[in-house]
């Protein structure tokens, strides 16, 4: 048989062999080698075989058993590893990805997906595989390893495959299942942690910041936002992410952790991408850090309001307040309490982000409130390097400690009483018909100190005075004349922040 380059294939005990060989092969194991001596009466007797075996010849056979099977055999399955968790097993019409080594019964390797460094991907139970493999893969878990032994009539039969597999060969597949899904599968969501307080859940059109670990079904990590040390930030429900993630991120709470399982037709499909193989099921373990909607405005929750709350903050007021600033997930960003001093601003003057200007409106001294500011009213997409992440929702817990009423809009100085009819002459102390900056500044300071006038609170005195003086110095020569000098109510058609 070695000279012919093919094994001798025959049924035993059915008269297809000489009687001695029929007896000699009984009880042999695959890979067993026997030296068989057969007397003439159990071989070719007194006739022999013309030109080959003489009459009354004793025959000697050196036999090596390569393969054996019976027509009543079925597919044999031996599981040698099974994961503890097995939420689902292979069923008819599932699509699976698996690695395998294919050998004959004697251990000879004829094929291996490992050598190709690529899984074998196929549907199960619909005729895409040999019948024995269609049967042998049923009931497997992802991560399971099993030996599937297939008789030839459930494999490649009498003809073999015309290549590596000869006719009548039993096949042994050592299979490790990596992935399975069904084309009818949708996104599966497993909520692992939901905060007790969840004022709002995400909706289509929201902008979400979240951390994630992305793995394949066999646990292979393909991506992680934690490794990059920054959240993944995106709109949801608008096609900015794969369809399965668009769906899986709907209805989440800030602080929620969930596992999102995405079949390939809602992931990266048959082609895959980068480290993600084609037809791969994806698992994302996500932690939602915050979300907002571009239409969101500032949210204000009053936690305490004094019984006497008649004076409310307005634009131009000078405010002193304490705050704790944090992200929606509770990460502390900043606190005036830790610095031991208040934060002081002129409301509506652009000294804080727009959302804070809005959040401090109509507040009375002693009031405590929580102000939630969406990023477009905070620090935007860029954030503040090293301090505030980009596109972050900000939470300020505020206590107003002091309020100094500001001036009417457009004014930096007002009189507390009647204005002198000889105002220019009073300012022009040396009576030379010209007022210089030093004279102007000294006069204003005197009015403020005596209580006759009031400057806009919270601004630098010198800057205010210079601004007032420059508005009066209409020709810009550093001097103000009587012709140039006008009070605010004398300038109905001019817009200046001066007297």
TrEMBL record:
Its EC number is 5.2.1.8. Gene3D superfamilies: 3.10.50.40, EF-hand. Residues 415-450, 460-495 form the EF-hand domain. Residues 472-499 are annotated as: Disordered. It catalyses: [protein]-peptidylproline (omega=180) = [protein]-peptidylproline (omega=0). Keywords: Calcium, Endoplasmic reticulum, Glycoprotein, Isomerase, Metal-binding, Repeat, Rotamase, Signal. The keyword Hydrolase does not apply. It is found in: Endoplasmic reticulum. The keyword Transmembrane does not apply. GO terms for cellular component: endoplasmic reticulum. Its main location: endoplasmic reticulum. Residues 1-69, 93-181, 205-292, 316-404 form the PPIase FKBP-type domain. GO terms for molecular function: calcium ion binding; peptidyl-prolyl cis-trans isomerase activity. PPIases accelerate the folding of proteins during protein synthesis. This is peptidylprolyl isomerase. It comes from Eudromia elegans. The lineage of its organism: Eukaryota, Metazoa, Chordata, Craniata, Vertebrata.
